[in-house]
């Protein structure tokens, strides 16, 4: 049969918002600006402040870079789709967006497990922490998540470039994702689905299991501390990371558990919005609000002013 081969797609975004489009556009534009400024501020503070020259903040700097890339790869096209009622994107642009989004998502999974390992060493093995977590180890542990993230996702993105898209060119979402593209293809996608499933299981589940195991060890160590204040002080060093892990994996798991059809499509969009737009905004807020060192490093910080007065 003869088919029309589509080389362009239309991101439908959130549908026709009518008179609300301007308000929704301004809201998400502000969220995007705050996300960029918040993560850039953390990178700047970690890079320039002597108080923050430690492995924990070094990995946090990489996490902020990861959040910046996720937000930058998704939000601009989403804003255009909101204000225009839909955004045309080429197949190359769609695959590029999918590559950077999936790559940075994989990178963040490994970065969060690296950060949990750092907290495990600091709390459960403090005497050997400095010797193990030296500069060479920090660089290796920060580089490998990026290498794995930006190479492993090629196995899912590259085969899609050979698909024939002839069923439709409308993507009922605000960004290019793997499953909507597979639905629009008239090629056999079963092999790609199997590849993605086999690769995604260890990529997402193993880091999650590793984080759970490290925190079980951390909780066990904290529980043996005799004083309540000692327990609170020790656990406060990793509470922000634990909240970020819960937010990231909670939205990621929910995103792929909710079926993207029928009445569940709106719920799937909301969860995707939480994962791709709000999580990169929450991370710098969580770390800046719950971390005393970052509070003190902030310019015109009240904590910094009070400590100077004392």
Automatic annotation (TrEMBL):
Organism expressing this protein natively: Engystomops pustulosus
Record's bilayer topology term: Multi-pass membrane protein
Main location: membrane
InterPro entries for this protein: GPCR_Rhodpsn, GPCR_Rhodpsn_7TM, Olfact_rcpt, Olfactory_GPCR1
Ranges annotated as spanning the membrane: 20-47, 68-92, 98-118, 139-160, 197-223, 235-258, 270-289
Entry GO MF terms: G protein-coupled receptor activity; olfactory receptor activity
Record flagged with keyword Ribonucleoprotein: no
Protein known as: Olfactory receptor
Subcellular location(s) per record: Cell membrane
G-protein coupled receptors family 1 profile domain location: 38-287
């Amino acid at each position: 049969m003869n088919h029309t081969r589509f080389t362009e797609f239309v991101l439908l975004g959130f549908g026709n918002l009518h008179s609300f489009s301007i308000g929704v556009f301004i809201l998400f534009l502000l969220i995007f600006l705050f996300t960029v400024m918040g993560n850039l501020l953390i990178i700047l503070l970690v890079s320039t402040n002597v108080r923050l020259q430690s492995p924990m903040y070094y990995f946090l700097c990489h996490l902020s870079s990861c959040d910046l890339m996720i937000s930058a790869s998704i939000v601009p096209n989403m804003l255009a789709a909101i204000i225009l009622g839909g955004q045309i994107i080429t197949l190359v642009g769609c695959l590029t967006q999918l590559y950077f989004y999936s790559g940075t998502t994989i990178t963040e999974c490994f970065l969060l497990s690296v950060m949990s390992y750092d907290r495990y060493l600091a709390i459960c093995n403090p005497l050997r922490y400095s010797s193990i977590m030296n500069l060479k180890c920090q660089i290796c542990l920060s580089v490998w998540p990026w290498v794995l993230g930006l190479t492993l996702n090629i196995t899912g993105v590259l085969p899609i470039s050979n698909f024939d898209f002839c069923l439709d060119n409308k993507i009922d979402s605000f960004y290019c994702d793997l499953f909507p593209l597979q639905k629009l293809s008239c090629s056999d996608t079963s092999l790609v689905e199997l590849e993605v499933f086999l690769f995604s299981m260890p990529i997402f589940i193993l880091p999650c299991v590793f984080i759970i195991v490290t925190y079980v060890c951390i909780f066990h160590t904290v529980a043996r501390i005799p004083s309540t204040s000692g327990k609170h002080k020790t656990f406060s060093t990793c509470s922000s990371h634990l909240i970020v892990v819960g937010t990231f994996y909670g939205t990621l798991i929910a995103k792929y558990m909710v079926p993207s059809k029928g009445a569940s499509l709106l719920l799937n969009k909301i969860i995707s919005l939480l994962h791709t737009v709000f999580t990169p905004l929450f991370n710098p807020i969580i770390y800046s609000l719950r971390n005393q060192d970052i509070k003190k490093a902030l310019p015109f910080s009240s904590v910094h002013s009070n400590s100077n007065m004392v």
